[in-house]
């Protein structure tokens, strides 16, 4: 059976340290903008940590929530793309094909989670910062949308290794960069088609919810609410 | 100390020319196979370029008087890797991540994409690679046509 | 065997497959002792290394791949293929990082490949402090340094001062040996990230040398007091890993965390309950809990506590705490009961933001732990693991030392940034005859240097580091793998050359020679290199039972435990002129400021304000409304000792009357990403120190705040941007 990749994020473990954000930058060659562009809302973070306040001082609580592309099954970004640059692949990934993208930004506008980013300019790195670039991930040109890929390069690599050894991909073997880095092990990645996988079990736990579930986008990222 | 990692220095002017005119044909005629030197083509993404150390496994003793081999030994003595120029590969703007191993496992002969290297002297790009050539083969072999299998 | 396999075996004969103790497959390592280092283009090699971003000393693994750079050689551009580091992850074998890593540690890569790195030695050509330098050769730089150093040494070697950073290990050992050979006083660390108060409290109460290890993972109810242990205190990755387990790692058992702190820190927001304490009232709060615990007869280990301390707790007037902390007695009582009734209670105390009475507050918390009977037990306070190679630099207030110094070395210290301007640090650095900086960057203090002798980046270095907090005796090991990018030189080597020029008997400490004694039976140096460290088997720490010090002065008992002092904190600045507490805190992104030059960290949204490229002043909504301050407005924060200007962030969870600000911005010199960006909250602090340790009292200054103009706070978070004008991306 094909894989169906999904993620569970335990908000009871997460404390908003943003290790995942840095890991994503290192893994996926995200461009760093500058203050002027950042002020225009053009900074790019495929994963961010959203912060919410609940109540008023002193009975106030702060909630953190890492938000990345939710890889929706009914992704609102997909049907609005005029050039079929964003589509659903057989493993349930919501894929952005940079080669096809013409930069209409319709998908970004239609994304309820604000996780799609537009490259306003050709990305630049001051030498020798580019020596850090991960050769497994494309450097996106200016004028295209980009977003979290669930670290598809890592998925492909693990699948390759497993196939070379003639065995199935083990649960937990694929670790996107954010999942790998998380000090509190709040993030779990795996195959939702495998009922025994850790992510499947967490997704069906009583604490699991999905972001803006009422929109019906059927995200594949499950948030486990804080315990009592 | 410093030059251990300067895996070869090469003036940009000489980009077009291989540092050593490596005769693929002679090596193949001796019974070597592609994988003997490009040893990760069957298991990894990259086929792998042999290190100068690997060359020296044989050329420590063999054919030491030939001019090309002398060049190799010279690199080895200076602890430098040979700055081979790669002749195949996709331009960065193609946004393609090619992996050798699955193609090897699918029994695609090396010559399909690399031509008759066994008969060639210096490596040259003799086969054109573009999305058309990739896809026609993928269709023929019923391999994946998922965009993200190659573009990410 | 076919021919191809023969080739493979010959060419990678020494590639061993290492299966880690933790069960994770670790065949990604290539051992060091491959006769020649070999990298297949397009393929990765993972190598162990050490993180040098803070004192925690996490073991990491780095992903090395071939890359190409163009360098200029004799005027011609030349293509050079080099080994480059693509990513840093935690070393799964390391008991501190356990395979995980914080944001700052991962961003260390941008220090390695930072465009502003110094590419070779430089000598001063302009006036001191003006940061005008010209390249020089290593030979010349060392000759100049040796001559000046010899000049000072001949007259009075006590006028040599070596300021270092918080990391313990071979670097510190080498420096100690060098100074000994010179006859100079030992190196001193006087940065804000060394935790001298926590060390001293553990020493005074338990006789422990080092930071206590809190067994958070196995605790059931935790009361945090003043220590932002998830945000950057002591060893953030180590405690964050434990926190995950504490919360959801045990079947049907969820740990509860209550955090008492003067700021909504990373730890406070992760807690189930946050108790906002006015700055400096931690000690009264803790004493009140101890009093109630005794009153409710819930104390389990009163025998371990000196009698006079128990008496002081019993005599403590809870209403004093109620008044000072603004926490009702029934709430305190509930906390005391929760702690006392928990099967495994734990109090984690520290001083993320040092107050003048912080030492007392940590000592009081240790006594509270003794009352709870958790010291030395699973889920409690554990003694620090022995430090196998020693070499932890001593902490001292270096201000007076600097005053009378003629020759200063700087390594991992940036006094011009971390010492308040009111200490006159700038003038003092200017007056120093010769200042030599080993920093890989031109930083605030480097601007005053006569010689910049840039060290390798940590990822290019060979070093052994002793982690600040480790569950077992641990040494993190890094051996040079990628060649240094530039003509930098390891400080160990520079000191060796200096010693040689001056004809001193000196041998630098190398990981190999200092570790020889730390290796246990069956361990080899090669194995240590391959694994990235040496770690004692688990369980060794718990075996050692604590011996709390007794009070009284019976002879032969050694030092006595401190009596309980419950003094009020001191604040500097007239209340009528400066009505607010100023509360600068080490930031998640920049720590004590040393990560401010990393572009990833500059663009990392602040966890609270979502600010990028410049940190705001945090003010509560009540006072903000009164002063007409809105988020984004440019405000001026003034103390009796200076003022700064920065955008405001109206923080709904700020304690009214407490103005917080993250430390990290406001560098004069620190490369293109950090120089002259934002404001440095440390610069306006009063020159006040915690008395017995000499630690800078970060939270002891009073300020006033005024709105200057409307401005702009650059924020990332969607929820904040939606309140403003239409943003587009």
Structure report:
The complex is a heterotrimer of chains A (228), B (152) and C (729). Chain A is an alpha+beta fold and 228 residues long. Chain A is built from six helices and ten strands; from the N terminus they run βααββββαββααβαββ. In chain A, 19% of the residues lie in helices and 18% in strands. In chain A, the strands form four sheets. Chain A has a four-stranded mixed beta sheet with strand order 8-1-10-9. Chain A has a two-stranded antiparallel sheet with strand order 2-3. A two-stranded antiparallel sheet of chain A has the order 4-5. In chain A, a hairpin with a 6-residue loop joins strand 2 and strand 3 (61-67). The N and C termini of chain A lie far apart (38 Å). Chain B has seven helices and one strand. Chain B has helices spanning 24-29, 34-37, 52-59, 67-77, 100-105, 110-114, 131-140, and one strand spanning 9-11. Residues 1-15 of chain B have low confidence and may be disordered. By secondary structure, chain C is of the alpha/beta class. In chain C, the strands form six sheets. Chain C has an eight-stranded mixed beta sheet with strand order 5-4-18-17-16-6-8-15, with helices on one face. In chain C, strands 22-26-23-25-24-27 form a six-stranded mixed barrel. The longest helix of chain C is centred in the N-terminal third of the chain and has 18 residues, at 138-155. The chains are: A alpha+beta (228), B mainly alpha (152), C alpha/beta (729). Chains A and C meet through helix 1, helix 2, strand 2, strand 3 and strand 6 of A and strand 2, strand 3, helix 2, helix 3 and helix 7 of C. Strand 1 of chain B pairs antiparallel with strand 3 of chain C, so a sheet runs across the interface.
């Amino acid at each position: 059976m094909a894989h169906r990749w999904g993620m569970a994020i335990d908000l009871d473990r997460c404390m908003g340290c943003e290790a995942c954000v840095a890991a994503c930058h290192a893994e996926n060659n995200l461009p760093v903008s500058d203050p002027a562009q950042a002020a225009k809302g053009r900074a790019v973070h495929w994963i961010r940590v959203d912060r919410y306040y609940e109540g008023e001082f002193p009975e106030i609580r702060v909630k953190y929530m890492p938000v990345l592309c939710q890889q929706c099954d009914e992704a609102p970004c997909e049907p609005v793309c005029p050039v079929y640059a964003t589509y659903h692949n057989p493993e349930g990934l919501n894929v952005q094909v940079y080669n096809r993208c013409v930069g209409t930004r319709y998908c970004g506008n239609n994304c309820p989670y604000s996780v799609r980013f537009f490259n306003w300019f050709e990305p630049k790195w001051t030498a020798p910062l580019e020596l850090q670039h991960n050769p497994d991930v494309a450097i996106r040109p200016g004028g295209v949308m980009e977003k979290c890929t669930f670290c598809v390069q890592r998925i492909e690599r693990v699948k390759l290794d497993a196939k070379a050894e003639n065995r199935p991909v083990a649960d937990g073997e694929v670790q996107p960069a954010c999942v790998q880095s998380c000090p509190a092990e709040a993030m779990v990645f795996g195959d939702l088609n495998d009922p025994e996988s850790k992510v499947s079990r967490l997704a069906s736990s009583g604490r699991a919810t999905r972001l803006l579930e009422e929109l019906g986008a059927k995200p594949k990222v499950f948030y486990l609410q804080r315990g009592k | 100390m410093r030059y251990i990692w300067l895996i070869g220095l090469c003036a940009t002017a000489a980009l077009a020319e291989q540092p050593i005119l490596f005769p693929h044909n002679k090596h193949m005629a001796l019974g070597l196979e592609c994988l003997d030197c490009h040893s990760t083509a069957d298991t990894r993404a990259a086929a792998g370029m042999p290190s100068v150390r690997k060359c020296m496994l044989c050329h420590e003793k063999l054919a030491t008087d030939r001019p090309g081999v002398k060049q190799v030994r010279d690199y080895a003595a200076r602890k430098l890797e040979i700055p081979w120029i790669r002749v195949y590969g996709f331009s960065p703007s193609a946004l393609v991540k090619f992996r050798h191993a699955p193609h090897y496992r699918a029994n695609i002969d090396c010559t399909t994409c690399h031509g008759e290297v066994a008969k060639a002297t210096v490596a040259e790009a003799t086969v054109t690679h573009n999305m058309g050539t990739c896809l026609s083969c993928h269709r023929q072999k019923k391999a994946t046509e998922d965009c993200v299998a190659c573009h990410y | 065997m076919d021919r191809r396999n023969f080739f493979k075996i010959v060419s990678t004969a020494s590639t061993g497959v290492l299966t880690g103790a933790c069960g994770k497959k670790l065949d990604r390592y290539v051992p060091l002792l491959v006769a020649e280092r070999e990298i297949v283009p397009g393929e990765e090699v993972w190598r162990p290394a050490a993180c040098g971003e803070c004192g925690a000393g996490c073991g990491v693994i780095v992903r090395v791949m071939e890359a190409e750079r163009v360098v200029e050689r004799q005027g011609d551009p030349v293509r050079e293929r080099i080994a480059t580091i693509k990513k840093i992850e935690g070393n799964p074998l390391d008991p501190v990082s356990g395979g995980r890593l914080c944001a700052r540690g991962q961003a260390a890569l941008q220090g390695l490949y930072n465009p502003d790195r110094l590419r070779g030695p430089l000598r001063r050509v302009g006036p001191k402090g003006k940061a005008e330098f010209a390249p020089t050769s290593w030979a010349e730089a060392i000759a100049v340094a040796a001559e000046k150093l010899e000049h000072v040494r001949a007259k009075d070697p006590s006028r040599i001062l070596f300021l270092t950073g918080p990391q313990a290990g071979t670097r510190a050992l080498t420096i100690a040996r060098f100074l000994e050979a010179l006859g100079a006083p030992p190196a001193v660390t006087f940065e804000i990230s060394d935790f001298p108060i926590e060390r001293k409290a553990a020493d005074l109460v338990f006789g422990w040398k080092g930071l206590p290890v809190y067994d958070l993972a196995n605790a059931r109810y935790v009361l945090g007091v003043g220590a932002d242990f998830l945000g950057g205190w002591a060893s953030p990755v180590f405690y964050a890993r434990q926190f995950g387990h504490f919360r959801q790692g045990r079947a049907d058992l969820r740990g509860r965390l209550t955090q008492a702190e003067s700021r909504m820190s990373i730890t406070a927001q992760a807690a189930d309950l946050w108790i906002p304490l006015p700055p400096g009232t931690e000690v009264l709060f803790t004493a009140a809990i101890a009093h109630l615990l005794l009153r409710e007869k819930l104390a389990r280990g009163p025998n371990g506590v000196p009698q006079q301390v128990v008496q002081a707790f019993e005599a403590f007037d809870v209403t004093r705490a109620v008044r000072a902390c603004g926490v009702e007695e029934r709430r305190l009582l509930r906390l005391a009961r929760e702690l006392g009734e928990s099967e495994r209670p734990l109090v984690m105390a520290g001083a993320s933001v040092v107050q003048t009475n912080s030492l007392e507050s940590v000592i009081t918390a240790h006594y509270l732990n003794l009352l709870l009977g958790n010291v030395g037990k699973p889920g409690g306070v554990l003694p620090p693991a022995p430090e196998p190679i020693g070499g932890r630099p001593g902490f001292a207030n270096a201000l007076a030392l600097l005053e009378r110094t003629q020759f200063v070395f700087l390594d991992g210290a940036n006094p011009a940034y971390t010492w308040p301007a009111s200490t006159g640090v700038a003038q003092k650095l200017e007056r120093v005859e010769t200042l030599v900086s080993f920093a890989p960057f031109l930083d605030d203090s480097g601007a005053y240097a006569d010689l910049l002798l840039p060290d390798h980046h940590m990822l290019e270095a060979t070093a052994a580091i002793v982690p600040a907090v480790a569950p077992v005796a641990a040494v993190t090991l890094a051996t040079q793998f990628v060649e240094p990018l530039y003509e930098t030189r390891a400080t160990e080597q520079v000191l060796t050359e200096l010693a040689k020029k001056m004809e001193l008997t000196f041998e630098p400490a190398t990981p190999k020679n200092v570790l020889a004694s730390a290796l246990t039976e069956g361990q080899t140096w090669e194995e240590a290199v391959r694994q990235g460290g040496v770690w004692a088997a688990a369980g060794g720490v718990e075996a050692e039972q604590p011996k709390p010090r007794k009070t009284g002065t019976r002879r032969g008992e050694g030092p006595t435990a401190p009596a309980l002092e419950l003094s009020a904190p001191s604040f500097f600045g007239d209340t009528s002129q400066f009505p607010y507490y100023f509360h600068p805190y080490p930031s998640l992104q920049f720590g004590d400021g040393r990560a401010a030059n990393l572009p990833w960290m500059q663009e990392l949204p602040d966890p609270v304000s979502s600010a990028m490229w410049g940190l705001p002043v945090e003010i509560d909504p009540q006072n903000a409304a009164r002063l007409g301050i809105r988020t984004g407005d440019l405000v001026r924060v003034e103390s009796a000792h200076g003022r700064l200007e920065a955008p405001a962030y109206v923080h709904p969870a700020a304690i009214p009357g407490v103005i917080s600000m993250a430390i990290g911005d406001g560098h004069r010199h620190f490369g293109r990403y950090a120089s002259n960006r934002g404001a440095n909250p440390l610069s306006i602090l009063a020159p006040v120190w915690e008395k017995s340790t000499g630690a800078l009292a970060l939270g002891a200054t009073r300020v006033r705040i005024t709105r200057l103009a409307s401005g702009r706070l650059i924020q990332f978070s969607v929820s904040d941007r939606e309140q403003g004008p239409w943003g587009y991306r």
